[in-house]
Amino acid sequence: MKKFLVVIIMINAISCTKKIKVDSLVINGNIYTVNKNFDKAEAFAINDGKIIAVGTSKNIQDLYTTNNLIDVKGKTVLPGLIDAHCHFFGLGLQQQKVDLTGTKSFDEVLQRIVDFQKEKNTNFITGRGWDQNDWEVKEFPTKEKLDQLFPKTPVVVTRIDGHALLANQAAIDLAGVTTKTKFLGGEILQKDGKLTGIFIDNPMDLIYAVIPKPTKKMQIKALQDAQKICFSYGLTTVDDAGLSRKTIELIDSLQKAGKLKIRIYTMVSNTPNDVDYYLKKGIVKTDRLNVRSIKVYADGALGSRGATLKKPYTDEPNHYGALGTSVADLQKIAQKIANSNYQMNTHAIGDSANYVMLKTYKEVLKGKKDRRWRIEHAQIIDPQDFHYFNNILPSIQPTHATSDMYWAEDRLGKKRMKGAYAYKNLLNEYGKVALGTDFPVEKVSPFLTFYAAVARKDVKGFPKNGFQTENALTRKETLKGMTIWAAFSNFEEQEKGSIEKSKFADFVILDKNIMEVNADEIPTIKALATYVNGEKVN
Predict the structure, then answer these.
(1) Which terminus of the chain is more exposed, N or C, with fewer CB under 10 A?
(2) How many CA atoms are closer than 13 Å to the CA of 262, on its beta-carbon side?
(3) What are phi and psi of 444, to 5 degrees?
(4) What is the pLDDT of residues 24-81, one digit of tens each?
(5) Residues 332, 476: one domain?
(6) What CATH number is attached to the domain comprising 139?
(7) Are residues 188 and 226 in the same domain?
């Protein structure tokens, strides 16, 4: 075993010292502390929700006593895992909608909607998760069959990435949208002068505006459902990438009442009233809630051809994608945030969108230090633009690479693929990466994140030798990206992200050693127990 981290003073006087009573002791562990030296340990003591000492099982038990002895019997223990980019509230709401993930055809989508409606009989059907790239016919669906099946009931089903939706005529009529409706950014697809039902990026809001809002009871259930799922995978902190003031305040109230125990780093959605409110109010920080960033969208997603590229799409030569917000407005909001103490976290997929944001960041951050502004996704980078990340933190999602690899080259061509999903290149520029999943776009499991980062394969083990493995991360880098570097990206590295004295007692016990097990076993790893503040929550 490697050297142990021992924060115990006066070991030679132990025999003369009365043992200190604490809340809990964790002993006999294979503990990856993820401290500065990446030391390993066997045990730690917990009191009042924090770690007070780390060391060997013998030394910890010689100094401390407890009524709650957690003997992990050699199992691997990690700091509580952090998902640096997800949609926590969205995951919870998804549990109340038609689940269309994994569908292999549009007919299967239709059947799931029919089955859902037979069971729920709702007045407005919503769902999420379809992806035409997984179908034999890799084209956007159209609304005709939905119109036949549901002539009077509005149906809105969102693509898996959240950047396109399909609406039937009943929903479109409710929204008052016609072929002449004006919009800025994104697309409303037409064929032969008629609406197809596909809305991409900004115009989606026209349809979303008429979907009935979930009741407070539904929202609370959604948050608690999402928490249960996350705890089952060892996640103790989640970064929700875009929340309204109303939802943030609901989360805060539930956390303070002890009804929501997961820690949440929130990015405030870029709506004028909410942005102005929080920039004026300043950072909101409790032990479980941290509000100090604004989520901005530069472009859309590659799968729906909403990502903004410097050169046209290879499979649609006259199409470049489109910025969801004008360059002038992006610069304006960036300057506004730069004048506050808030962080700016921008969704940027295409190489053009990334270039615009990196240049904008550089301009408005002149003379400002340690702002830790983030590019969310940083998916396609022109090789000549990587250097801009020397002062901009990449927040990336490894499973996007292994989900998109089947069709991404069709969109980009072989040459541009070299700058796509280039996580090692990004790490080399900034020195850290924050890792997440973007769930429910991808699956919640952080073990799939880990596997995609180090093996660059999907759960089928494809491709055999890995996808663009020059950009694979090491296991050590990956673990840091899911713990201490993710905490750093949230300005929280002094309170979480490692198992060290004075930090929150957030940790997870695994059934296998993720740092040493055969790589192909990583996706099967399970979280045996999850702890937040020293309390077992799963």
Answers:
(1) N
(2) 29
(3) -70, -30
(4) 999 999 999 999 999 999 999 999 999 999 999 999 999 999 999 999 999 999 999 9
(5) yes
(6) 3.10.310.70
(7) no
